[in-house]
Amino acid sequence: MASISVCVPVYQGHGAPNISTLAASMPAALGGLQGELVVALNGVAPDRGGLPEDAVIVDLGINRGVAPGWNAAAQKAKGDVLVFANDDVIFGPDALAQLAKALHELPDAGAVGPLGARWSLAEQRHIAWVDLAGHPAGETEQCDVVSGFMIAARRDVYERAGGFDERYAPCTSEELDFCTTVQVRLGLHCYVVAGVNYQHEFHISSARPWRRLRHNGRTEMLWRIHRRNRRYYRRKWAGVV
User: Fold this and answer.
1) What is the mean pLDDT of residues 88-92?
2) Taking the CA of residue 220 as centre, how many other CA atoms within 13 Å lie in the half-sphere pointing to its CB?
3) Which pLDDT tens digit goes with each residue over 38-86?
4) pLDDT class for 216, splitting at 50, 70, 90?
5) I want to staple 65 with a disulfide (CB 3.0 to 4.6 A). Which of 162, 169, 190, 196 is the partner?
């Protein structure tokens, strides 16, 4: 089975769940597989992030955003399987091993994760979450978009997709675009994997729309970021999806 690199951008220190608890959960989540944690510092000092000593660190200097953070971490990563996660996740036992197993057993998988949704990609509209309650662990079901707080892909798929589009920085829609790319450009599929245990607390995804985020040397309201990224997605994929 392949080795696993967990790529996580960190832009501020906060209480648990955080990068420290994520790191502590990794040994059990790897299920005996080899793994590493690669952290992209988005404008936060190492001593404020609570980083584990054995983590691979990429310092971006300023908050460049989620997609640039994931890409920077992936460039330093050595694993055959890349798991892109937020720093507000705690992996359950064997969680990472289950994602790697699904990628190994599904050669047509472009991206997999524990939570996914059906979307109308043409309308950029969420339809429904994929419900795998009661399904045996490891069973998979196809979806349109894998939620970005924990999304796994083989390294070769990530590279063929061109990584995450950094035009979506600082946040929102980067996983939607990546999943669209692997399906439309690469002819692969996205899957939800049943029985992958985790804890996750939504931060930016649930933040108030008038919250201001500092990134790339400026500040911007979250609702403007959402609108800008939606418009960019529509322009990029017009006539394709």
Assistant:
1) 96
2) 18
3) 999 999 887 765 788 889 999 999 999 999 999 999 999 999 999 999 9
4) confident
5) 169
Sign of CA dihedral 50, 51, 57, 58: negative
CB 101 within 8 A of CB 138: yes
Token pair 């399904």 is found at 135
Q: Which residue has the tokens 């429904």?
A: 128
pLDDT tens-digit map of 8-35: 999 887 788 999 999 999 999 999 999 9
Nearest-Å Rg of the Cα atoms of the chain is 17
pLDDT in the model for residue 168: 97
SS3 string of the chain?
A: CCCEEEEEEECCCCCCCCHHHHHHHHHHHHCCCCEEEEEEECCCCHHHHCCCCCCEEEECCCCCCHHHHHHHHHHHCCCCEEEEECCCEEECCCHHHHHHHHHHHCCCEEEEECCEEEEECCCCEEEEECCCCCCCCCCEEEECEECCCEEEEEHHHHHHCCCCCHHHCCCCCHHHHHHHHHHHCCCCEEEEECCCCEEECCCHHHCCCCCEEEECCEEEEHHHHHHHHHHHHHHHHCCCC
Query: For residue 207, is pLDDT > 60?
Result: no
